[in-house]
Amino acid sequence: MSDSRGRQARRGVQLLGATLAAGLLLLSVVLPALAAAVGPTKLEHPSVEPRTGSTTTQFTLRVTYRSNQNVPPEYVRVVVGSTTYEMTGAGIDWKGGVVFTVHTSLPAGAMGVVFQARDAEKFVDEVVERFKALREKMDESLRLTT
Questions:
Q1: pLDDT value at position 12?
Q2: Is 76 exposed, middle or buried (0-12, 13-18, 19+ CB in 10 A)?
Q3: Paired strand residues for 105
């Protein structure tokens, strides 16, 4: 009888091993597909150039929009301080990524920069960037001399 139990135990271990191997194989196929579906709209590589300047400096604000579902954006915009600027993109490869830009002068002072996007399926993404626009140089006549 102990010989019969030994064979049953070995058979149980073999079944358990086969079940675990099948489960791992299934996970290796399903997980990449699930990961690709997460976050269909994504903003990447936000930038503000130059990082400092005066109120007459032309700043270039740039961000890359991607859609895993290859869906175009309803909007891509940037909020600088309390002002919102619509951005324009060059291209239509939404899955590969399209760079959106806006060129503008900005008021003096430190301010937050928030890039925002929403696609036609109402998925939203947002990235925050900080920079400081320098005040124009003080007029020489206002400087105190000794």
A1: 67
A2: buried
A3: none
Domain encompassing residue 111: 41-133
Same domain, 71 and 125: yes
> Rounded distance, CA 99 to CA 82, Å?
23
Does residue 146 lie in a domain region? Answer: no
Give all strands of the β-sheet with 98-104 in edge-to-edge order. Answer: 41-49, 59-67, 98-104, 88-89
| Spatial distance between the Cα atoms of 60 and 112, rounded to a whole number of angstroms | 15
Beta bridge partners of 142: none
Looking at the domain assignment, is residue 121 inside a domain?
yes
> Is the pTM here over 0.85, yes or no?
no
Cα(67)–Cα(92) distance, rounded to whole angstroms? 11
